[in-house]
């Protein structure tokens, strides 16, 4: 009897050791798959990995602040920042600042898109317009939009048009070059096939070239919308009586670090929501690409 019990325990221990080894081996294999370039991950795996990254970021932030490694004056804890952001939204009329910044962002961004899309398509497909416009746009791309703020104040005054113009300048040049690259990258074989089937230049342009560009153009709009959110803060630092940028500047003047970080987090949240809206629209408009 004792021998059978001993044999059973030994077999269970061996099975446990084997199971742990198998689990470690499976985990290592999965990790190798995750670290493989362009590894195919399921939607659930991508969501879990993203959640892990966010959790680690806030866990480290919470540890260094609550553990006393950094003084709250320099870096408040995420709990303090979340409480301050809630107070700003619930009791201090911060939603009005959010609305002011949001319509400035989309005002400048939409104006930039209306001009940059046709300009980019012309540059990408017509050598004449490429030679005429691309050197100017490529040079202007390296000029910081903040350098135009004094000029915009001189030309437009301290009003809403000046702030929208700063966002326009900051987004127009990269967006136009993005779209030029996209339209230039449309396969020549695709266009030659249309020509060989008897299509005219007008038909190739409107029925082949433009439809081939639209999915990537929407994606470039998503990227450029994120750039617009970065420039709204700069645009509102001068002559603004409302907006998220001026709220951050006023908090900095009174050394309210938690409010400064809360404002930065709020801009980041709005940027993420904008990005998510563009991704959702892209999936709905072009389901064959997903």
UniProtKB/TrEMBL annotation:
Pfam families associated with the record: BPD_transp_1
One of the record's GO cellular component terms: plasma membrane
InterPro entries cross-referenced by the UniProt entry: MetI-like (IPR000515), MetI-like_sf (IPR035906)
SUPFAM superfamilies: MetI-like (SSF161098)
Entry membrane topology: Multi-pass membrane protein
Region of interest (Disordered), ranges: 1-23
GO biological process: alkanesulfonate transmembrane transport
Transmembrane segments: 47-64, 105-128, 140-158, 164-183, 229-249, 261-281
Biased composition (Polar residues): 1-16
Keywords: Cell membrane, Membrane, Transmembrane, Transmembrane helix, Transport
Domain ABC transmembrane type-1 span(s) in chain numbering: 98-282
Intracellular or extracellular location(s): Cell membrane
Family annotation (PROSITE patterns): ABC_TM1 (PS50928)
Chain's role: Probably part of an ABC transporter complex. Probably responsible for the translocation of the substrate across the membrane.
Stored PANTHER family: ABC TRANSPORTER PERMEASE PROTEIN MJ0413-RELATED (PTHR30151:SF0), ALKANE SULFONATE ABC TRANSPORTER-RELATED, MEMBRANE SUBUNIT (PTHR30151)
Protein name: ABC-type nitrate/sulfonate/bicarbonate transport system, permease component
């Amino acid at each position: 009897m004792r021998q059978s019990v001993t044999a059973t325990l030994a077999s269970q221990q061996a099975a446990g050791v084997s199971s742990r080894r198998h689990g470690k081996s499976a985990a290592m294999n999965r990790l190798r798959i995750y670290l493989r370039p362009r590894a195919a991950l399921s939607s659930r795996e991508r969501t879990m990995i993203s959640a892990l990254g966010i959790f680690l970021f806030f866990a480290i932030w919470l540890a260094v602040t609550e553990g006393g490694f950094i003084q709250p004056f320099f870096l408040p804890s995420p709990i303090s920042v979340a409480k301050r952001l809630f107070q700003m939204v619930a009791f201090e009329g911060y939603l009005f600042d959010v609305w002011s910044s949001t319509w400035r962002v989309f005002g400048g961004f939409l104006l930039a898109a209306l001009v940059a899309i046709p300009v980019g398509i012309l540059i990408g497909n017509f050598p004449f317009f490429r030679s005429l416009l691309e050197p100017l746009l490529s040079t202007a791309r390296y000029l910081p939009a903040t350098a135009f703020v004094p000029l915009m104040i001189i030309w437009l005054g301290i009003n809403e048009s000046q702030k929208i113009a700063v966002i326009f300048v900051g987004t127009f040049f990269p967006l136009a070059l993005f779209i030029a690259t996209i339209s230039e990258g449309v396969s020549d074989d695709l266009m030659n096939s249309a020509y060989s089937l008897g299509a005219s230049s007008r038909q190739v342009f409107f029925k082949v070239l433009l439809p081939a560009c639209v999915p990537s153009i929407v994606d470039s709009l998503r990227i450029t919308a994120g750039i617009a959110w970065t420039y709204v803060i700069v645009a509102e630092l001068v002559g603004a009586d409302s907006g998220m940028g001026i709220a951050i500047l006023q908090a900095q003047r009174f050394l309210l670090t938690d409010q400064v970080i809360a404002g930065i987090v709020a801009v980041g949240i709005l940027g993420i929501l904008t990005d998510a809206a563009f991704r959702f629209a892209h999936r709905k408009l072009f389901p064959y690409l997903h």
